TrEMBL record:
This is methylmalonate-semialdehyde dehydrogenase (CoA acylating). Gene3D superfamilies: Aldehyde Dehydrogenase, Chain A, domain 1 (3.40.605.10), Aldehyde Dehydrogenase, Chain A, domain 2 (3.40.309.10). Belongs to the aldehyde dehydrogenase family. It is an enzyme of class 1 (oxidoreductase). The keyword NAD applies. InterPro entries: Ald_DH/histidinol_DH, Ald_DH_C, Ald_DH_CS_CYS, Ald_DH_N, Aldehyde_DH_dom, MeMal-semiAld_DH. The keyword Cell cycle does not apply. Its EC number is 1.2.1.27.
Length: 499
């Protein structure tokens, strides 16, 4: 084992070898090759990372806005220059195709670009003469040490949703990437240091539940951002909130698309197929349920035919679909498919038997489609996180909307239609935070914020964009009055002044 590279911790500007006795393997999901070993950091190492952030905050919070912004101008340049390298690392450890890996990096890069605009995003307000000779103004000040806990499925994009905005607003940061694929995250962190992030402003620890709990409990961490499963996210939200922290948790999903019979059929089926099976379904914004309304129910054979054309293989050969992240993930998806059959759904396309020549040990599942899916079935009630599309039927748009609104999750939804009136009705009545109209995965660009809702989110402010500037800052309101000597009347007021 000793010849394998070890993933380092980043503490106070230094990449250091963990002293832990507990390590995990980073495994290529297409081949089962062990790529590196990742440490489960010790409590002392987490404390050291937070202490480094706390010490660096003293000077970082006073660093001029332009100095902070220029670091992110430099970082976006470095990410562009290293795009191919970053995608190759990401594909090796996560499995997604090279083209999709570049997309993963690019959607994070957009947030880095946005962070460089921090000067105009973190402005306070000023009002003169709110009472006799009294002025009021507000400033948006950084909180201190913030932390991020990120998932395996977007090891470039989601860390880049978090640390650039936190650091640009004047905070310091402790990042805990997914222990399943931390290597591309660490390469991005190296580039951030190269771009000029000072020692202690960005720190990285690796680990599992113990490290997550240490982050939730640490008295010097002021805010936590989390993306991952509902189970872990709920735990983080409750534990960290009890410890007095700000918390934002983006969690599980069950995203539905409504397909109306007036939709452009070719376009709707292409979009649906891509959004259901891209990244092997391992996206919290994947479209995993399609509600076919009226005559659109006749389109199932054409949807199945499109899904059958998708190539499954190792990500570095740029197929349509790569492997699932782990053997455990593959087993879980296969178990849920079996349960779908058992519970009475119709298996229109079975991806369990897919084999990829030369990659017999890869975690591959092909596109899988069920029709006749109903609430109460495991394949509907649970987030599968695999390339499985559930088809439901409805007689009307309102019936389809009612199905979606009855589901507890609220990450994303979409409608395919050529009717402006239907789309307008849908966007108004649907109780889901992110809505696509002929756009299957409506993740907003960073000018806006990610706005998942209901059971998909805990905390009221979303990642990146305008909302996260509020999340990562404390608004301080200052009310001031300056007296001329002659103007002071010497009278004591014990009542609230009305003017």
């Amino acid at each position: 084992m000793s010849h394998l590279p070890t993933v380092k911790l980043l503490i106070n500007g230094e990449f250091v070898e963990s002293t832990t006795s507990e390590w995990r393997d980073v495994i290529n999901p297409a081949t089962q090759e062990v790529l590196a070993r990742v440490p489960m950091a010790t409590a002392a190492e987490v404390d050291a990372a937070v202490a480094a952030g706390k010490a660096a905050f003293k000077s970082w919070k006073k660093t001029p806005i332009g100095t902070r912004a220029r670091i992110f101008l430099k970082l976006q340049q470095l990410i562009r220059e290293h795009m191919k390298e970053l995608a190759a690392i990401l594909t090796a450890e996560q499995g997604k195709t090279l083209a999709d890996a570049e997309g993963d990096v690019f959607r994070g890069l957009e947030v880095v670009e946005h962070a460089a605009s921090i000067g105009s995003l973190q402005l306070g307000e000023y009002a003169e003469n709110v009472a006799g000779g009294v002025d009021t103004y507000s400033v948006m000040q950084p909180l201190g040490v913030c932390a991020g806990i990120t998932p395996f499925n977007f090891p470039a994009m989601i860390p880049l949703w978090m640390f650039p905005m936190a650091i640009a607003t004047g905070n310091t940061f402790v990042l805990k990437p997914s222990e399943q694929d931390p290597m591309v995250t660490m390469r991005l962190v190296e580039l951030a240091l190269e771009a000029g992030v000072p020692p202690g402003v960005l720190n990285v620890v690796h680990g599992g539940p113990e490290v997550v709990n240490a982050i939730c409990d640490h008295p010097d961490i002021k805010a936590i951002s989390f993306v991952g499963s509902s189970k872990v996210g709920t735990h983080v939200y409750n534990r960290a909130s009890l410890a007095g922290k700000r918390v934002q948790c983006m969690m599980g999903a069950k995203n539905h698309a409504i397909v109306l019979p007036d939709a452009n059929k070719e376009q709707a089926l292409n979009q649906l197929t891509g959004a259901a099976f891209g990244a092997a379904g391992q996206r919290c914004m994947a479209l995993t349920v399609a509600v076919l309304v009226g005559d659109a129910q006749a389109w199932i054979p054409e949807l199945v035919a499109k899904a059958k054309t998708l190539q499954v293989g190792p990500g570095n050969t740029n197929p349509d679909i790569g492997p699932l992240i782990s053997c455990a993930a593959k087993d879980r998806v296969a178990t849920l498919i079996a349960k779908g059959v058992e519970q009475g759904a119709t298996l229109e396309l079975d991806g369990r038997s897919v084999s990829v020549a030369g990659f017999e040990h890869g975690n591959f599942v092909g596109p899988t489609i069920f029709s006749g899916v109903k609430p109460g079935m495991a394949i509907y009630d649970q987030e599968i996180f695999g390339p499985v599309l559930c088809l439901m039927a409805a007689d009307s748009l309102d019936e389809a909307i009612a199905i979606i609104n009855a589901n507890p999750n609220g990450n994303g939804t979409a409608i395919f239609t050529q009717s402006g009136a239907a789309a307008r009705h849908f966007q108004e009545e649907i109780d889901v935070g992110q809505v696509g109209i002929n756009v299957p995965i409506p993740v907003p660009v960073p000018l806006f914020s990610f706005t998942g809702s209901r059971a998909s989110k805990l905390g009221d402010l979303g990642p990146y964009g305008k909302q996260v500037v509020l999340f990562y800052t404390q608004t301080k309101t200052v009310t001031s009055r300056w007296f001329d000597d002659e103007a002071s009347s010497g009278k004591v007021h014990t009542t609230i002044q009305l003017k």
